[in-house]
């Protein structure tokens, strides 16, 4: 797996956070606290319990991401032509792909050092906040910069994009999905995602 894909997966796990306060600075504090909690969960993995630890991390992460919005952005314009059933199927399979990718990869980075920065980028009157982080693998090396784009949803923020060194996860998938849709249509993309996920 390429480094960007690995770090994107890790980033999704790091951002499995409950932003209880709908203000940028309080959101940053909550990201920092919960990043520590997520890594604490992963450190309980001992080889024999990896599956249950992965599931615990997945369950913790899922409520704090807007997978439908992420899917719509990744699919792009063809999303508008998709039926409701197709949208549901795309969202379900894309969610499964992202969650399985990050949960498996995060175990390899459970001892990484994560630094959440105090200078979020605030857009749309505070309704959209980009939280920045720096991740260093346990063995050291060059830090990887990551941006998590969130939007205000009630009294919290939900993540709908992750960028690694400026490369947007949604954009990367949009390029891949666009080619598949062009050649095979929406149903072809759904079938391709199901095959990758091992779904029936």
From TrEMBL:
InterPro entries: MlaC/ttg2D (IPR008869), Tgt2/MlaC_sf (IPR042245). The keyword Signal applies. Residues 1-22 form the signal peptide. It holds the Pfam family MlaC. Keywords: Signal. This is Transporter.
